[in-house]
Design a protein that fits this description.
The chain is α+β, with helices and mostly antiparallel strands. The chain has five helices and 16 strands. Strands 1, 2, 6, 7, 8, 11, 12 and 14 form an eight-stranded antiparallel beta sheet that branches. A four-stranded antiparallel beta sheet has the order 3-4-10-13, with no helix packed on it. The longest helix has 58 residues. The radius of gyration is 38 Å and the shape is elongated. Keywords: Membrane, Signal, Transmembrane, Transmembrane helix. One of its GO terms (cellular component) is membrane. InterPro entries: DUF1191 (IPR010605). It holds the Pfam family DUF1191.
Length: 307
């Protein structure tokens, strides 16, 4: 019974885990990694015969209106000797791409009005679109191999130039640079020049100001979003806890019923043992009582034997 109950619990736990993972995935609709993967594959479809050194502007589907993406393929030797300067990113010389390949492709992203859908900075408001520079390995026939590369900076850092910047509500507040890392982490740094940030590796960048200094409607909107997210989280947690509780209640009920049945059987066995002791024999897996084959010998009532 214990083994059967253990298997039953394993099945229920797998169902709960799958249900919980599906809820988490549905609650996080916009994923930066998924966007990078989509842009990488879409660029390969758009540019079938790429040329080294040519900058290509990638046309996106209508549902990505407002987002701008471009890509350039270069030889890694040329990249190390000359660097790359394109619109809002200036990559200086002597930057080493890893892993070492003959060619590389650099994907430039301007998320525009999609910035807040993929990225957010707690307690801050973005006043500029999120800009991204992602290096990938490349081959002679394929523009992007979709294998991301790391940029090792030995001298001057990469500079990020923001042009489409909204003025903060408080003119005395100085915007700060924000770099998005893995797992939703954010690193802050000061601007080196007005609306210019220094970057020490590849990734996504923007300008932010503290939320308390943001316009009133922005703060109210952020508060409403935060309240809505908290409500959704509590609803999901309550639903999952209720579902797990129901499963555990069913398992406990089954266990109690089986234990009660076994107790009744044991009680009946003990009652039968207190009765007349009989021999037993087995037929298959069934235990049955058996009377002794020895019969009582006949005895005469007196010693007189008739002649």
């Amino acid at each position: 019974m214990g083994l059967h109950l253990h298997k039953w619990w394993q099945v229920r736990w797998i169902i709960v885990s799958l249900f919980l993972s599906s809820l988490v995935e549905s609650s996080n609709t916009y994923k930066p990694d998924s966007l990078d993967d989509f842009l990488c594959k879409h660029a390969n479809k758009e540019i079938e015969k790429p040329r080294t050194g040519a900058l290509y502007s990638i046309s996106l589907p209508a549902n990505f209106t407002g987002m701008e993406v471009s890509v350039i393929r270069v030889r890694t030797v040329s990249f190390w000797l000359r660097g790359v300067n394109h619109s809002f990113f200036n990559i200086p010389r002597r930057v080493v791409p890893q892993p070492n390949r003959m060619r590389m492709a650099i994907l430039y992203e301007n998320l525009g009005n999609w910035s807040s859908h993929y990225y957010n900075v707690p307690n801050h408001t973005m006043i500029a679109p999120v800009l991204g520079v992602i290096p990938y390995t490349s081959s002679e026939t394929t523009l992007i191999d979709c294998e991301k590369m790391d940029l090792i900076i030995q001298r001057d850092p990469i500079t990020v130039h923001f042009t489409n910047v909204r003025r903060p509500h408080d003119e005395n507040v100085t915007p700060i640079c924000a770099k998005f890392g893995s797992g939703g982490s954010v690193k802050f740094s000061n601007m080196t020049m007005p609306y210019v940030c220094e970057a020490h590796d590849q990734g996504h960048y923007t300008l932010v100001v503290p939320s308390s200094k943001a316009p009133t409607h922005t703060v109210a909107h952020a508060h409403a979003q935060s309240k809505s997210k908290r409500f959704n989280i509590w609803w999901v947690l309550g639903f999952v806890i209720g579902f797990v509780g129901l499963v555990m209640l069913v398992l406990i009920s089954i266990t109690i019923v089986k234990m009660a049945k076994r107790r009744r059987i044991r009680k009946m066995e003990k009652s039968s043992e207190r009765g007349v002791a009989l021999d037993t024999f087995w037929i298959g897996e069934t235990k049955l009582p058996s009377a002794s084959t020895m019969r009582t010998q006949p005895v005469l009532e007196n010693d007189v034997v008739p002649y």
